[in-house]
Specification:
It is built from three helices and nine strands, in the order βαβββαβαββββ. By secondary structure, the protein is of the alpha+beta class. The protein has a single domain, classed as 2,3-Dihydroxybiphenyl 1,2-Dioxygenase, domain 1 (Roll).
Length: about 140
């Protein structure tokens, strides 16, 4: 089951520039990490409160062939994905695939945060949107 919006991902090759924008908006960086399977660095920005509040994730490439390199070349920086926290990654991936979403990942991958596992799916028409399903290990203090 989908529990909540976890974060909104923004793709950029200029994470410092987007960080300045986030600071101007009154947000603060609460977490950061690397998703090595995707070749990206991620910084999670939120308004006060941290855990449990939706974040804006700044996603930037760390390798020439990162998962977002092609997207940045074709479309430039901007909205990349919408991420939902789920209670069961496998079941929710299967449910959405049954509803016409296309799985991007063959298997779930380690996310950028400790205890985070993710799976990406594509929602074509009419949304034309990349969706990330996020599951946190129970011992990492995240939750609704």
């Amino acid at each position: 089951m989908i529990l909540r919006i976890d974060h909104i991902g923004l793709a950029t090759e200029d994470p410092a520039g987007v960080a300045a924008f986030m600071t101007t908006l009154g947000m603060r960086k609460y977490d950061e990490g690397h998703a090595d399977d995707y070749g990206v660095a991620c910084a999670f920005w939120q308004f006060g409160g941290g855990l449990g509040n939706p974040a804006v994730e700044i996603v930037s490439p760390t390798t020439e062939h990162s998962a977002i390199s092609g997207r940045l070349q074709r479309q430039g920086p901007g909205l990349y994905h919408l991420a939902f926290e789920v209670d069961d990654l496998d079941n929710e991936t299967a449910r959405l695939r049954g509803q016409g979403f296309t799985a991007v990942d063959a298997e779930p991958c380690k996310g950028a945060r400790d205890g985070m596992t993710v799976a990406f799916l594509y929602a074509s028409a009419p949304a034309n949107l990349l969706i990330e399903l996020v599951h946190y290990a129970p011992d990492h203090g995240r939750g609704v």
